[in-house]
C-alpha cells in the first residue's frame, strides 16, 4: 500500500477511535428513535371523507401515506444503525490482533481520553514511547478495519 493511502487510513482510523463512544451512543439513540416512531402512528386515528372527482389507483389516504413515510424512515434508521454496528464490530475485531500493551494504550488514549504523561505513568513507560506504540497499533488495525479499501482504492 502506498504511503498516501496508508496515511489516509491512519487518519480515518484515528478519527473512528476518537469517536468510538459517540458512535456507541448514536446506535443506542437510533434504537430509541426507531422504537418511538413505531409507537406513534398518529394518522391511524381518523378517516377523511373528502369528495373525490376522478378514479385513480394512487394512494390518497393520509393514513396510508403516513404509514408508508414512517416505514421508510424506520428502514433508513435501521440501515444507519446497522452500518454503525458493523463499523464498531470491525474495530472490536481489529483490536484483538494487538498485543496487550498496545490495547491498553489505545483504550487509555482513545476511550478514556488520557494525555501521554498519564498514560506513561500508568504503563510505566515514557509518554513519547507510548505515542509510538499507539501509532504502530493504529497502523496495524487500519488495514483490517478498512479491508475493502485495499481492493477498491
Automatic annotation (TrEMBL):
InterPro entries: RNA_pol_sigma_r3/r4-like. Keywords: Coiled coil. The keyword Coiled coil applies. This is Siderophore-interacting protein. It comes from the Bacteria. It comes from Clostridium aciditolerans. Residues 20-47 form a coiled coil.
